[in-house]
Write a structure and sequence with these properties.
D-Maltodextrin-Binding Protein, domain 2, Arc Repressor Mutant, subunit A
């Protein structure tokens, strides 16, 4: 007896995705049409085709503006990654000699968890590009970008911050971390390890505790994930950290301790105006690298 065949999933044409991104970036069909070298009516037909293919609307349209639906916002993130994957693959053949210097910013946890592999792969595909990485807090890196000291930077923020012009690359669940068999999570007030005001993980954790009425105190402060690990392993505190940072003796606090559920956080990309080819190549590499991690 033959196994039942799986339904065929239609393929999204890259031209459709390119138009979707152009509409999202420009805010209207006419400007998007100019960006993709099509007529406004052709762009409208592309959107219609896309919506028929998916079986649901991706834009909310009125006489003055165009906004993404929630499904459209989801598709936009994936469209950017899929286009980046295509550009990165083709660039190996048609732009093998891209060269220059990329000044890049990255938060500490990202530099530790993601960048080593990504930079190694980028060096292999773009040997003539030098990447200088600055590791610092999100707010300071945004200031450096605006001051012209960085070409691009990765930033951490709350989910929902996309309207500030940051392109989402990755989303991850935050959890309360503690030492396996430790006692910090049972203490009153709860000893917490966080960083300074403005840190997304800090805000998520303390907002959750305040919302549930749990008393807390700052027992340890560190801007570096290694410092947070040290505080947890010493059983000095619990800390809100990404789920991917758990491991070994650092575990998610069990439900019996009654700690509030935490939201996801977002890792995004900000770029300076008029990026050069080396910066564009590095940005596409980041998009492509995170495509499989989301």
């Amino acid at each position: 007896m033959n196994a039942p065949s799986l339904p065929t999933i239609p393929l999204l044409d890259l031209d459709l995705l390119k138009t979707l991104v152009a509409i999202a970036d420009t805010g209207n069909f006419s400007a998007a049409a100019a960006a993709v070298f099509r007529t406004p009516s052709a762009v409208s037909m592309q959107v219609k085709k896309m919506e028929e293919l998916l079986g649901r609307p991706v834009f909310i349209r009125d006489s003055r503006s165009v906004e993404l639906t929630p499904d459209g916002a989801f598709l936009l993130e994936h469209a950017r990654r899929m286009l980046a994957l295509n550009r990165e693959a083709v660039a190996r053949f048609v732009q093998p000699d891209v060269e220059g210097v990329v000044r890049m910013g990255a938060p500490d946890d990202c530099a530790e968890r993601f960048l080593p592999t990504m930079l190694r792969r980028f060096a292999g595909s773009h040997p003539c590009v030098t990447v200088n990485v600055t590791v610092d807090g999100t707010h300071r890196m945004i200031e450096m970008l605006r001051a012209g000291k960085l070409d691009m930077t990765l930033v951490t923020a709350e989910v929902g911050f996309e309207d500030r012009g940051t392109e989402v690359l990755y989303r991850e669940q935050l959890v309360w971390a503690m030492r396996r068999g430790g006692m910090a999570a049972s203490q009153e007030p709860l000893p917490v390890s966080v960083w300074e005001e403005g840190c997304v993980w800090r805000k998520a954790g303390l907002d959750g505790l305040n919302a549930t009425g749990r008393k807390w105190r700052i027992a340890f402060q560190s801007a570096h994930i290694s410092g947070q690990r040290a505080a947890i392993l010493a059983d000095l505190a619990v800390a809100p950290i990404p789920v991917s940072s758990l491991g070994g003796e650092i575990i998610e606090a069990p439900a019996k301790f009654g700690l509030p559920k935490l939201p996801k956080y977002a890792l995004g990309l900000l770029m300076a105006d008029d990026p050069n080819p080396a910066v564009l190549a590095a940005a596409d590499h980041l998009r492509a690298s995170f495509a499989g991690a989301v």
